[in-house]
Amino acid sequence: MEDLEETLFEEFENYTYPMDDYSPESDLEGEAPLGMVHWISLGLYCSAFVLGIPGNAIVIWFTGFKWKKTVTTLWFLNLAIADFIFLLFLPLYISYVAMNFHWPFGVWLCKANSFVAQLNMFASVFFLMVISLDRYVHLIHPVIAHRHRTLRNCQIVIVLIWLLASLIGGPSLYFRDTLELNNRTICYQNFHEHDPDLTLMRHHVLTWVKFIIGYLSPLLTMSICYLCLIIKVKKQSILVSNRYSLTILAVVLAFLICWTPYHLFSIWELMIHHSSYFHQVLRAGIPLSTALAFLNSCLNPILYVLISKKFQAHFRSSVAEILKYTLWEVSCSGMVGEQLRNSETKNSCLLETAQ
């Protein structure tokens, strides 16, 4: 147990750094860069939450309730749902970091918080991959798309994506645990308490599974789809919607920019089991790369507004409709109130006359 306590500390996945380096005493002894890094990361977490909750809620409202149900709207609806669910849990993690990595929420929320983060990561990248494949088939193989690109098949794929993302993120529910340490409760990956070799093996396996299935394979698939699409479009002079293609491309690029540092630092973190040479770099890199990954959950709605003219038009018309309805409701309530006051005055006059 003592060996475990000497190596347990984590930010998002599984920090395996010496606990002494993260103690309050070390902060007083000149660990100012660490404090600055965590304040910056906290600012990014809060920005993701403040921008992401209303942004994704608007996208869910449009694609789920206002627009006609199509294959495309279902893809983006589920992408927004994945981000929205993750952001709902983000205040727990913000509190965890703000309280100097003290987790007062219990072991089950520790497990759920990590699981939801993993679910968001895998579901988002799988939906982006499917959107790229769907775009390619729809433009290059219209006959196949007409035959198989149906709402029913789309719903089946959506269910399979959520099940697959849940399955791959499932180990977080099993391995996440809490531990009392230095008068604090930490939420960490408890791969094994007494077997360092088993701990190392499980850490390696889960990190590489995340990288290969949750990043590299989808990245290659999306790159191949867009490369083939560009070649085919130029050769066959296919007319495409530049705005729609640009929206999808921007969403994919945002995902790559936000998640690439996280996966690279996660792999780099494995080296610390064998050498502490990169320790200081990881101390700053992992919190910042994690914060950058979290920001991805609020970027998609912003990109829709900036790029998609259809979204802009629907947004303006919907806001105008809401304002119109609100003003009408206020006006009607005022008229009703005036009628009630007039009615009360009339009744009181009748009573006085009767007396």
Describe this structure in words.
The chain is globular. The longest helix has 46 residues. The N terminus and C terminus are likely disordered. It folds into 2 domains: 274 residues, Rhodopsin 7-helix transmembrane proteins (Rhopdopsin 7-helix transmembrane proteins, Up-down Bundle), CATH 1.20.1070.10; 40 residues. By secondary structure, it is mainly alpha-helical. Helix 5 packs across helix 6 and helix 10 packs antiparallel against helix 11. It has a two-stranded antiparallel ribbon with strand order 1-2. Helices cover 80% and strands 3% of the residues. It is built from 12 helices and 2 strands, in the order H-H-H-H-H-H-H-H-E-E-H-H-H-H. It holds the Pfam family 7tm_1. InterPro entries: CML2 (IPR002275), Formyl_rcpt-rel (IPR000826), GPCR_Rhodpsn (IPR000276), GPCR_Rhodpsn_7TM (IPR017452).
| Number of discrete helical segments | 12
CATH classification class of the largest domain: Mainly Alpha
Q: How many E strands?
A: 2
Q: Biggest sheet, strands in spatial order? A: 1-2
Largest sheet: 2 strands, antiparallel
Question: What's the CATH H-level superfamily name of the largest domain?
Answer: Rhodopsin 7-helix transmembrane proteins
Q: How does the overall form come out from the CA principal axes?
A: globular
Mean pLDDT: 75
Domain G-protein coupled receptors family 1 profile: 55-304
Protein name: Chemerin-like receptor 2
InterPro entries: CML2 (IPR002275), Formyl_rcpt-rel (IPR000826), GPCR_Rhodpsn (IPR000276), GPCR_Rhodpsn_7TM (IPR017452)
Subcellular location: Cell membrane
